[in-house]
Design goal:
binds protoporphyrin IX containing FE, globular, mainly alpha, 184 residues, single chain
């Protein structure tokens, strides 16, 4: 296992343990939320599911790039890896995912924001403002990479902080424990 993969695994386990501890604290100290089913919150729940699918597509692309040994992340995580011969179908599929990432990304940010606004998420449970900040972070820096007037330095910095698997891991862990915390 490369040092990079060990580092990511270490981070993931560390963040999961800390989140689990905070989750126990929330469960013990916060009152149960009353059921609040309105038409708006029902639609908002649908947006939550859609947002999850879009994140699945986004990180599915990252996974596919890793398997196919493409991109900087693959070179960093799997320096000695020889990817299997990809079929042209798989190559075309990855190309399609690459070309559509900006649109899928914008849709993911918009839909997750709508989900948060419509279901009335309790922002005093810190998992939620953290997820909100990370999603906005992805959206802003994604925009700065793609905006043609971004100065070169800003584009480089934005790529560095946007194309991070760790952000996805944080979004996943925080959203999971957050939803568990408010699950009655
Ligand atoms: C929640 C929303 C988003 C997530 C989770 C996300 C995630 C990612 C990840 C993980 C990468 C690296 C891909 C890789 O090398 O495997 C990436 C690259 C990139 N993203 Fe996003 N992104 C989001 C939204 C956006 C938005 C809104 C834009 C533009 C408006 C954008 C533009 C880009 C660009 C230009 C790249 C670099 C080129 C590429 O890899 O295709 N992203 N994004």
């Amino acid at each position: 296992m490369t040092r990079e993969i060990k580092k990511i695994l270490g981070y993931t386990i560390g963040i999961t343990v800390l989140s689990a501890l905070y989750f126990v604290y929330v469960k013990m100290t916060y009152p149960r939320l009353p059921e609040n089913e309105t038409i708006l919150s029902e639609i908002g729940e649908g947006f939550g599911t859609a947002g999850l699918w879009l994140l699945g597509i986004i990180y599915g692309r990252t996974l596919l790039k890793l398997v196919m040994g493409k991109g900087k992340l693959a070179k960093r995580l799997l320096p000695d890896y020889t990817p299997p011969k990809a079929t042209s179908y798989l190559k075309r599929f990855l190309l399609f995912l690459n070309k559509t990432h900006i649109y899928v990304g914008i849709a993911a940010v918009a839909i997750i924001l709508l989900h948060i606004a419509m279901v009335g998420i309790p922002m005093n449970i810190l998992f939620f403002p953290a997820v909100l900040a990370l999603v906005l972070w992805q959206g802003f820096f994604g925009m700065f990479i793609s905006w043609k007037y971004s100065p070169k330095e800003l584009r480089k910095f934005s790529y560095l902080v946007h194309a991070q698997l760790m952000t996805g891991i944080l979004i996943g862990i925080f959203a999971y424990f957050g939803h568990m915390a408010i699950d009655n």
